[in-house]
Amino acid sequence: xxxxxxxxxxxxxxxxxxxxxxxxxxxxxxxxxxxxxxxxxxxxxxxxxxxxxxxxxxxxxxxxxxxxxxxxxxxxxxxxxxxxxxxxxxxxxxxxxxxxxxxxxxxxxxxxxxxxxxxxxxxxxxxxxxxxxxxxxxxxxxxxxxxxxxxxxxxxxxxxxxxxxxxxxxxxxxxxxxxxxxx
Length: 183
Description:
By secondary structure, the chain is of the alpha+beta class.
């Protein structure tokens, strides 16, 4: 890890983030520790942790969204550790927003999976799998990663109808390359 470089009297720059002067950050392995001027510390890491051992909804969101710990969302509704984050998507968003450390930026693409869930959409997929029968019916709810998709048709539905752009990692218009380029 390189030492932070002082850019001005107000900011420090490292390989990861630009943070206000009153935040000190330490990156050890896969953990991020933020210390605020008020003396509070917020630590997020990607070590597998069960919900009872997670201290805040923001930490649960970090583990789900950044680390990909899908077990934190046992019922696949997009809300991790519901005892901390609530059972409603709106409450979850409010809690994450209120508890997210100011110096730690959230990737806007990580929150994309939340938007379709607020407007449950059931539609027929536009893509047919090898010409079989009628079009399968998919819903914009719960799934966020390629490993959760059961078919290329479902992955295309999530990309085109639900706006889940993270499924197209290389930007070529084909979601979940390992799944959709098998043929």
